[in-house]
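Data card: per-record layout.
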Amino acid sequence: MSRDWNASVTVAAVIERGGRFLLVEEETPAGLQLNQPAGHLEPGESLINAVIRETLEETAHTFEPRALIGCYMSRGKSSRDQGDTTYIRFAFTGDLGSLDAGRQLDTGIVRTVWMSIDELRACRERHRSPLLMACVEDYIAGKRFALDVLYTHPTAVATEVAP
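The structure for this 163-residue chain is written out next.
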């Protein structure tokens, strides 16, 4: 295996209300693009805590994950260093909570927007990730897995690594 291989674990929230999906419009090296509230898993963080944090940072809304939609893989250029990266995305659905109107959105996020499935399908060239539609289509198809399918060993969220 090549030592140059790079993988990045990400999470995404697929949030639907009244047939419309919550997205973020964000500045990227390719210009303004659309994505679900999503981001990278950070050290010492569970997947569930990561999607709660990312949704809050990118939308200023609380989020309560209720189900895992699926796990996805794609390959592309890293927005951090433009290196070749394999992305492993865990997509969740759940309940969107209260808005913290005074909270500033994460760096690069221009605004949130609600879009129908037809609007999403019509603007694929604006999608930040090819996984955006895969996650939404699986959500529409009713794919749901209980959150207990995900196991986080205590060492993954510990502040120090045990000997």
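Known properties of this structure: The chain has a mean pLDDT of 92. The domain at 7-147 is CATH 3.90.79.10 (Nucleoside Triphosphate Pyrophosphohydrolase).

See the next section for split statistics.
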